[in-house]
Amino acid sequence: MPLWVRLFCVDVYIYCKTFADYLLDIWHSLKNLMPPYSETMKYNFVCLLLASALLIVATDQAWGDSLWRYGYSTQELRSNEGYNKYLKDRYGAAGIRLDGYLVGVTFLRTSGTGIGLEYSSTSGRIRYQTLNGEKQENTLDLQTLLLLLSSYRGNWEWSVGGGVNNLSRTFYGYRSSYITTENIKDQLGTRTSETLGTTGILQGLYHVFNSRLQWSVGARYIIAQNEIDSSDIRPGHNAKSVQETQNFDLGGLALLTTLTYRF
Amino acid sequence: MCPLTRRNLLIGGSGLFLFGCGDSESYTAAKDYYPVTSRYIFHWGKKSSIKIEKNATNAAYSLGGSVNELSWFETGVNAWANTLNEIGISVSFTGSPDVKVYWLNSTQMLAKAGSPYVLGQATTEKEIYMLKGQDQTTTTAVATHEFGHMLGIWSHSFDSNDLMYPYLNSTSLSNRDKRTLVDFLYELSPDFDLHDVAGPLVHSSTGVSIPHYVSSLTTNGCQIHTSTG
After folding, report:
1. Which residue segments constitute the domains of chain A, with CATH numbers given?
2. Do A93 and B26 touch (CB under 8 A)?
3. Which whole-number Å values give the CA distances from A44 to A36, A37, A47, A224, A251, in the listed order?
4. Nearest residue of A to residue B225, measured between CA atoms
5. What confidence tens digit (pLDDT) does each residue in B36-68 have?
6. B182-210 pLDDT, tens per residue?
């Protein structure tokens, strides 16, 4: 076997192993996030990961640097239909803002492409005064795990990504439209409910500082929908106040600023 | 003109970052009504009248209420009066009745409702059954709660501050009780106008037979079930 092939194989092996270790570390650190995902969802995620890896490997032969990133993201949710509209109608929550941090690692190819993983945790809240004059707060916490494919051209970085999300809603309210002494315990007070969904993104970042330490600003367009089932402990309700299954659109345009260190 | 430098960008970006991290302390005005039905909407319609015979009798229930009980009942019903005025509904206790109120002793209540602990019962057949011998506070609160059902709230509140909570924790109507009735229930198109209800319920557009709702307020909370009448 020619020397360059052996070296290439060793190179690929080392980077694959390193990459797998990173993945496993992140995977294990998110243990509380992962168990609820269905086998199908995990299967889709792994397939996406493998397909992306194959794509990267097929397009170039050598790895470059790794980029470690921390950032801040802010996004305003739509309020025009589905569960979003329900939140607006019931709580006056037009344009709920989700903001929070993101961390990620990207492995660069010398060709200027990269593959990375990103974990983000954003949250929002709905502060409202009830009809009885009490102040209440409902919260939304969204955790997202994304696989990113990126292209680097000068000061610009373009990415597409896909992954999974876990939305946790802590809401005061009720569950069933048929409230009696038998089910009042299910209705009472503040309850937390979790739903799972998939997320896709398109992202553009501009590196204001583009040295070993990068400071970047940009935007990402997010496509994400979670289904809030009618049997959820805090479901959406229709115009007659009867619980029904509704889609919660978690997508939209997010603004980002990130700090990245290049090893 | 000031040149745009990286330092300026950094300061500006930091400002934006802090703005993004900032927090709004404002509270929106919610319309957190409680549910009024598990399926069909019943009510009397705006700008109408509801006539109540507060001391109805028949062959089975001939006891009637005492002067005090009748007065307390009327007080309980009138707790809704101002709220009903907002949507043009008047309540009177004279004339050909839309709603009949019977007074039962515990033996009769046991036979009627299946439990001697039922303090009051209301049905979409436009009848209210009150247990005799209760004190003023209880009789008034039961009357307000059961009349709330009679107005079309065939569910309960999720909040113990509301009189339409399934347990009698509160003795007066909350703002949510009032707004749920006026701004929510009576803004919905009813499947059944209670003025027109007589005998078995049949949905006008689907032709489906529907059982009557029956609420039974006991010493251990209020239950809603259905009855074929």
Report:
1. 3-262 (2.40.160.20)
2. no
3. 15, 11, 5, 16, 20
4. A180
5. 988 889 999 999 999 999 999 999 899 999 999
6. 999 999 999 889 888 887 777 777 878 88
